Structure formats: structure tokens, C-alpha cells
Amino acid sequence: MHIVGGGMAGSEAAWQAAEAGIPVVIHEMRPKVETFAHRTGDLAEMVCSNSFRSDDHEQNAVGLLHWEMLQAGGLVMRQAYTHRLPAGGALAVDRDAFSAGVTQVLRDHPNVSVSDEEITELPEDGQWIFATGPLTSSALGAAIARETGADALAFFDAIAPIVYFDSIDMDVAWLQSRYDKGETEEERKAYINCPMTKPQYEAFIDALLAADKTAFHEGETAGYFDGCLPIEVMAERGRETLRHGPMKPIGLTNSHKPEEKAYAVVQLRRDNALGTLYNIVGFQTKMKYGAQTEVFRMIPGLEEAKFARLGGIHRNTFLNSPTLLDAQMRLRSKPNIRFAGQITGVEGYVESSAMGLAAGRMAAAEILGRPLPEIPQDTAHGALIHHITGGAEAKTFQPMNVNFGLFRPVDGLKGGRRGRKDRYKAYTDRAKAEWTGWLATQEVPA
């Protein structure tokens, strides 16, 4: 089996197939061919956030995906838990240690080899999985467009900046997870919080709106995915937008001035195990580098901030999967080719890894001649696959995170906000039973 792309989806697909006994070649063009966003040649490199988001597998669809992948012996989730950092109720990791761990496990596997060859065409034969992610090379993107007869859809994905901890003024900022969430003291203090008064917030918004932004190249359009909007785009939608988004002050009490309620709060989340790096949560941006340092140093506590990485922006391509892929995630016009990960129109590390897990198992079963039962639609994996391969409206298809809105209703449960807790628990209970049953029909990797 050949897998093109060694990101989250490609790495997980390779692991699942290799564990099933299939020889796998991962074609990863980095570091031989570099991209704008990547820093290394490691597999499963985390480009944007270092978070896999909520780990609550009873009340959150993302947490349910975590659970399902762990039950299926998923490499990405195993490594995530191995390199976990305190992050309240979220699953955040030391990004470098995580990707190094995934790389080592795959390179050590007897059924896996890694090639730095750049694949620029769609092969006519053999079993292939294309998991090239948001930064699919221009040559391969052109080949996909020629084959599908449709232009690749695109939006722009933005990267949040990373700050050195020792440059943060902790006499102004304080450590606290929202609502003190977490089972340990370390979890309850997983975030650094920088408070703003109303005048400070207003001045910050003014500077943000006036700052120099990255210009788009001719022919490019800015069709952002709402789950990853640059902060300046959010600010353009209304001056209060950020205060009700990544800068919301609810659930936080300033330990230096507990009697004062902040008008807005900027949060930073630990980015490595040493605790020397913190990323600014939700602060994806397309401001120019000089403007970023000026604007971000207006944040109380970050006046002397030193940046390990500034924010950036890159093009993100994805297929109109409902029209192009079958239920086995195969390209209808070339069924020897499957797609997985963000290029299929899922959004996020977790969702990309999950689609890699599914594609890897599907392709391995086909090679082995062992029919693989359809992944149940009422699981988190099944809900996503159903959405991208036919459940979504093709005319308005956009990248999608996993969410309970993709799940079929459970009969007899109350709707609305009041019934949400019971409804979500019913979704996850049903999904776990269905997923466990599906895994029982095949050999689960040890």
C-alpha cells in the first residue's frame, strides 16, 4: 500500500494497515520539499495548535472520537496520551515530542518504509491513500483537479503565535483553567490568563483593525473556515466578537485582583512539556510580523513578550467529497485511490486522524480480501464518513469538525438546551456500543 502524506491522517492510516500485516510505503516530501507552515521532516507534525481539543468522551463528540481511536489501537491517540500536557479538560501535547514519537514508532515498524519522493500524479494501479492535507503540493493539486473535472475548493488556515514563558509578566497574568476545570491542581492551572479593562480592549481592537495584513496573491480568495478565523477577521465582524469568542472573560478570576472583573481575557496554553513555550489560544492571524509584535505587546502581561513563532496564513485545499468519494472513501473515477484527512473536508487533527484510521483499515481489508463491515453511522467515525461521502449538501460543502449535529437523533429524548446532557450521553453510549461491535468483527491491533 502507498500512502501520500505523512501528517496525522497518513500516519494513522499507515499504522492501521501495517498492524494488519500490509507492507506500507509513506511518501512524505518533507523535508526535501518544504512547505510554508511545516518546520521539520517529522511525521504527524502539528502545524497550528498543540491541542486535540476536548477529552470528554461522554459529553463531547471530539472526546468520543478520542475514545473510538484508542479502542481501535490508534497510534495518534496513544502518542497523544504519552506526551500529554496539562490543559484543563482538553488533550494538549508537547508537539515536538509527539511528532517525534509517531515518527519513531512508524520508522521502527517492520511493515513501514518512508520515501521523500514527491508524488505529482494520480497512479493508475496499486492501492493508494492520498492524505496530503491542507498543503497539497501545487503539482498534485493540479492532477487532482484534472481527474475530478472540478477546481479544488480552498480556504485559508491561520497559525497562532507562540510566546516564551519567561517573557510573560506573571505579576499581571495568572494561572487558571476556565471554571477551574481539571482533576488535578496542574490541570486547574493549565492556562495563563491576561486581563483587559474596557479601555485596553477598545485600544487593542483599534490597533488590530488598523494593522498591516498579509496581502493575497492574484487569483486567491479568502474563504475562511469559521472554526479557524483570524482574529482580525473576527474583529471586522463586530467590536465585541472577540470578547465573546477567544477573549471571553467568563469562568476566570484574577488571582492578583479577585475583586476586579476583567472586561476581556487573553488565554495562553502550554505548548511543550518543559513549560517554556505557550501559544495564544484562538489568535490565528494574517497580520504582518512587525504588526503582530506591536499589537500583541498591547496585551497586559505581554508587554515584553518574546515570540518563538509568529502567526501566519496558508492556503488549504479540500475535495468536494460528497460528489467525488464513495462510502469507502475511494475516488469514484479511480477506485484504487482513497483520500483521507483534511483534504476530504474534515477539519482538525482529531478528525483527520480518524479518517486516516478508517481509510487504512478499509484499504487493508480490500488488499487482504476480507470484507470490512460498514462503519456504523451512529459512531463518531461513521457520522463523519457519512457526512463527507454523501450526507452533506454538495453545493455548500465546507470543512466540518465532528459534532453531535452529525448524529442521528435518539428516540424519546428531550430536545433543547435542558435535555442536552442526557441527549449527548445517549449519543456517546450508543456510539460506544456500535463501535465496540464493529471492532469485534475484525482483528484489533494490539
From TrEMBL:
EC number: 2.1.1.74
Binding-site residues, FAD: 5-10
Subcellular location: Cytoplasm
GO MF term (any one): tRNA (uracil(54)-C5)-methyltransferase activity, 5,10-methylenetetrahydrofolate-dependent
UniProt superkingdom: Bacteria
Domain MnmG N-terminal: 2-370
Alphabetical UniProt keywords: Cytoplasm, FAD, Flavoprotein, Methyltransferase, NAD, NADP, Transferase, tRNA processing
Keyword Cytoplasm: yes
InterPro entries noted in UniProt: FAD/NAD-bd_sf, MnmG-rel, MnmG-rel_CS, MnmG_N, TrmFO
PROSITE patterns, A to Z: GIDA_2
One GO cellular component term: cytosol
Keyword Kinase attached: no
Family: Belongs to the MnmG family. TrmFO subfamily.
Protein function: NAD-binding protein involved in the addition of a carboxymethylaminomethyl (cmnm) group at the wobble position (U34) of certain tRNAs, forming tRNA-cmnm(5)s(2)U34.
Official protein name in the record: Methylenetetrahydrofolate--tRNA-(uracil-5-)-methyltransferase TrmFO
Annotated organism of origin: Salipiger bermudensis (strain DSM 26914 / JCM 13377 / KCTC 12554 / HTCC2601) (Pelagibaca bermudensis)
